[in-house]
Amino acid sequence: MSARITATSAICPAGCGVEQLWASVRAGLSGIVSSHVMDRQFQPIQMGLVPEEALEPELPAEIDSLPLPARARRMLRLGVPALRSVLEHAGEPPLRLYLGLPQLSLEQAPWMRGFSLHLAKAAGAALDVPSCRVVPCGRAAALVALELALDALEQDPSRPVLVGGIDTYFDVRLLASLDAERRILGPTVSDGFIPGEGASFLVLTHPSAAGGEGAPVHVESAASAQDPGHRYGAEPARGEGLASAIERLRGRLPNPAPPIGCTFAALNGESFDAKQWGVARVRHAEFFRADAQLSHPADCFGDAGAAMGALLLTIGAAAIAAGQRRGPALIWAASDGETRGCALLSRAGV
After folding, report:
1. pLDDT tens digit string along 158-217?
2. Is the pTM here over 0.85, yes or no?
3. What are the backbone angles phi and psi of residue 116, rounded to the nearest 5°?
4. Collapsing DSSP states into helix, strand and coil, what is residue 112?
């Protein structure tokens, strides 16, 4: 279930391009600004927003004329430049795309049904539609998509796969709902998060495929689990889902596996996810080096929702490829719903 990462792309408030993003995260530079959206106290909501000039300037007329909501349009404008930048490394069309999207049902968001096709058309990509998958489960979506993509790559090693995630919280109704729940960090909310946005894609090839000898980073495996005690669940929140996902990941690795050198976590400032990480870290203490580093890049660009897992994979790959973090690198994200996902990256030959 391993794969080589042969190309990555990213766009988020902390950087447009992988090198700029990782440099900003390393330096602790923030892309968080005061938005024009006001909270219930009539205070501007702090958000991580991609500059307008970095977005796709306009969508093709046939897509622009569709009755798409503002959130879907902005997601397309985020996703098109990120997807376009990896197309030359994605192999011969048609492409197999595994895409993480927000945690919405088709009844709530019927626009998600054709989102991949709209994205591909706007970016100039031809998709192998029957092979593509959309994973609408929020923050962990791209890691679940990665798990599916690794299985597909194992079944057909001849063609690369594309894994990605796109999302934005820059939606007035969504922000109002989160504000009503007191989940947005602000002057009167300390246990909250900063809404963000972003898009990121990775091209993966099978280790046996020709032409990837220079690829320095491998995905060793990925795993996911379901936690009935999630934020909106009826079961007690024991924080066990992430620990279960890591246990599944460990079961797919060689035994003994090298201890984790660093972690890139989807911690967004809310205590709910911190509890999950605490349970998982204690339960799997022997899986980590004593000096393992922890990074939570949401400090720099906010919570990017369904783009979070893909952004963390991209940042983690850049970090260990450059030798600026010790591998292997654990990547994890937990959705507001029951899905938790994780993956392990390593530097080739190390």
Report:
1. 999 999 999 999 999 999 999 999 999 999 999 999 999 999 999 999 988 765 544 689
2. yes
3. -60, -40
4. helix
> How far is the C-alpha of 96 from the C-alpha of 268, rounded, in Å?
31
The closest of 47, 106, 54 to 78, measured between CA atoms, is: 54
> What's at 342, amino acid-wise?
C
**Nearest residue to 97 via CA among 60, 137, 140, 152:** 152
E-assigned strands of 133-207?
Answer: 133-136, 161-168, 197-205
Amino acid at 146: L
What values do phi and psi take at 166, rounded to 5? -140, 140
- Interatomic CA distance for residues 322 and 22, integer angstroms: 10
**End-to-end Cα distance, the chain:** 18
Q: Does residue 211 sit in helix, strand or coil?
A: coil
CB 143 within 8 A of CB 309: yes
**Distant-in-sequence, close-in-space partners of 207: CB < 8 Å, separation ≥ 6:** 2, 3, 4, 218
> Between the CA of residue 220 and those of 40, 137, 141, 331, what are the distances in Å?
45, 23, 18, 11
Q: How many CB atoms lie within 10 A of CB 152?
A: 17
For residues 253-291, one letter each, b for 16 or more C-beta atoms within 10 angstroms of the residue's C-beta and e for the rest, the string is beeebeebbbbbbbbbbbebbbebbebbbebbeebbeee
Smallest Cα–Cα separation from 8: which of 167, 224, 160? Answer: 160
Q: Cα 14–310–101 angle (5° rounding)?
A: 105
Residues 6+ apart with CB under 8 A from 226: 241, 338, 339, 340
Q: What is the pLDDT of residues 103-116, one digit of tens each?
A: 988 788 899 989 99
∠ CA 124-125-127, nearest 5°, is: 145
Question: Can the peptide bond before residue 57 be classed as cis, meaning omega within 30 degrees of 0?
Answer: no
Both structure tokens of 249: 């990941």
